[in-house]
Write a structure and sequence with these properties.
heterodimer; A: mainly alpha; B: mainly alpha; two-stranded antiparallel ribbon; 11 helices; transmembrane (chain A); membrane (chain A); transmembrane helix (chain A); ABC transporter permease (chain A); transmembrane (chain B)
């Protein structure tokens, strides 16, 4: 953890237009929750629907993508990463710091709004709000690790990340149940399921698989990103 | 000194002037359009830049191949012409998101826009060329698989028969379905125009490619996510009319509803659109195209004067 690098990263992410997207997504979640309130559909089942389809299904992958790649990819694109790499700071420390920044932002923009929305809609009933908040947190950590790695490995990180989130977790996951075992979104859902005793929420992946998988993916992402940055070629690939 | 002497002078240091033919504004715009269209498919760029567009083209061709095979082997159409684009919307959205920043972001980022605008090309021409390039690219992406399906249908003689289990086999719609094909080709252009206008306009607001990709895809995901959630919620409260309106938040279903209104017949998506969806949807599509184009023009006028 290096506080200077953390400060630079926060400024880069929050001081530009990126922040409007980070704010927009939770705002839409709040708006949808408000609408559910108005039409009187704020029961447990619709709350879970909103959480599953929007909070975990749309907002979390998008925020993970924007924040996870955003902490490092623009610097690599601009070449300003050179100034960071030429300082006597261990490269794994750089990636670890950026990972922690990404996680903290995901807590702020994904997990916290998820909890607030859930508890505004149905309070603490069935532990749904807390469950999805913890699920969003765990999923957010894994997304941050994976997309950070993608940002270091390729310049097309966002496109590849989008394809993973949309095609694999979305389209393929809908038709091929086996694909759900290897989906961060489903792992987040398993954790949410663990915390809530609601019958309307049913996870497809057991916690015994989801929890180790989440940890493994995160650790591999962060460690590999550090190694990869260690032998980073400034000449780039394009 | 009371007399003001000129501080900067451009001396003619004897370079030869260009005296050859000048092709003018139209030629420049055409060249820019062709260059942009080639770039969308990665032509003239590195091998890495070709991977993503071509794999997406390959995925778009898959349903056409399956369709032709199904028509030949079991005399059935798994997919209608009008249902093709809504079924492939994720692929089109990814194509749009990954390629539209390429069209506009590098010129902004490397500040070469003044170089274009110092030629006879005006900001309006520039925007037009970029929009035309993206529209043609998307139209090709939609039209080629549709045409392959249609040619397959012309070649294969699908006649109603019986399966080994005694069920009636064969096309539910008469074959060849020329009206369906032509209607879907025409609306392929509408899809392409709408997507290109919105996608390129959103991408033109950031000089960063990554952020551009993320913004375009976020917009699509927001629209489709909101649509799915609202639809499910209204269905659970049995507000069926509101539920069917909620579908139209998704731009692909919006155009599909208009197509269904004009050409009638099967929606191809198995969805029920509200009664007034056609005319209102057409207005919404036109408004979205106009709004995006206007935003983009304003953005480039500002960039030109800056």
């Amino acid at each position: 953890m290096n506080t200077v690098i953390a400060g630079i990263t926060y400024r880069a992410l929050l001081g530009r237009r990126r922040i409007w997207m980070l704010i927009l997504l939770p705002l839409v979640l709040f708006a949808l929750a408000g609408l559910l309130r108005i039409v009187g559909a704020d029961d447990e089942r619709t709350t879970i629907l909103l959480m599953q389809h929007f909070a975990i299904g749309t907002m979390l992958p998008l925020l993970g993508l924007i924040i996870g790649t955003g902490v490092i990819a623009p610097e690599i694109d601009d070449g300003t990463i050179l100034h960071l790499l030429s300082k006597p700071i261990s490269r794994p420390v750089i990636t670890q710091t950026k990972f922690l920044v990404a996680v903290s932002l995901l807590v702020l923009f994904a997990a916290l709004p998820t909890y607030v929305t859930g508890s505004l809609l149905i309070g603490n009933e069935g532990g749904v709000a807390a469950g999805f908040a913890v699920g969003a947190l765990a999923g957010g950590i894994a997304y941050a690790g994976v997309f950070l790695l993608l940002g270091v490995v390729t310049r097309h990180a966002v496109t590849i990340g989008v394809t993973y989130a949309l095609v694999w977790e979305g389209a393929v996951g809908n038709f091929v149940p086996g694909a759900r075992r290897f989906s961060i979104q489903q792992w987040a859902k398993s954790i949410a399921d663990q915390f809530s005793d609601s019958l309307a929420l049913k996870a497809d992946v057991t916690l015994g698989f989801a929890l180790p998988a989440l940890m493994l993916v995160t650790v591999i992402g962060v460690v590999w990103a550090g190694l990869r940055l260690g032998r980073f070629s400034l000449a780039g690939d394009e | 000194m009371s007399e003001t002497s000129p501080t900067g002078v451009i001396h003619d240091i004897g370079y030869r002037h260009y005296t050859g033919p000048r092709h003018g504004r139209g030629y420049a715009v055409r060249a820019l359009t062709v260059h942009s269209l080639r770039g969308v498919f990665g032509l003239g760029r590195t091998a890495r830049a070709k991977i993503i567009p071509y794999s997406l083209v390959a995925i778009m061709m898959l349903p056409a191949v399956v369709q032709v095979a199904a028509m030949a082997l079991i005399s059935q159409r798994p997919l209608t012409y009008s249902g093709f684009v809504p079924a492939m919307q994720v692929v089109l959205a990814i194509f749009l998101a990954s390629q539209s920043p390429f069209l506009v972001a590098p010129d902004l980022r490397f500040r070469v826009l003044p170089l274009y605008l110092s030629r006879p090309v005006t900001p309006r021409d520039y925007v037009g060329a970029k929009l035309l390039a993206m529209t043609s690219a998307l139209f090709l992406l939609i039209a080629i698989p549709l045409t392959v399906m249609y040619i397959g249908e012309l070649v294969i003689d699908m006649r109603p028969g019986e399966s080994p289990f005694g069920e009636a086999l064969g096309p539910a719609v008469p074959s060849p379905d020329t009206v369906g094909y032509l209607g879907s080709m025409a609306f392929g252009l509408v899809y392409a125009l709408l997507l290109a206008a919105v996608g390129v306009a959103v991408a033109s607001f950031t000089p960063r490619r990554g952020l551009g990709v993320a913004s375009v895809i976020a917009l699509y995901l927001l629209a489709s996510g909101v649509s799915v959630v609202l639809n499910a919620v209204f269905q659970s409260t049995s507000d069926d009319v509101l539920a069917s309106w909620a579908l139209l938040v998704n731009p692909f279903f919006l155009v599909n509803a208009v197509q269904n209104w004009i050409f009638g017949g099967v929606t191809g998506t198995g969805l029920d659109y509200p009664d007034m969806a056609g005319p209102l949807g057409a207005l919404a599509v036109l408004a979205l195209i106009a709004l995006s184009t206007a935003a983009m023009l304003a953005r480039y006028r500002k960039a030109a004067s800056a």
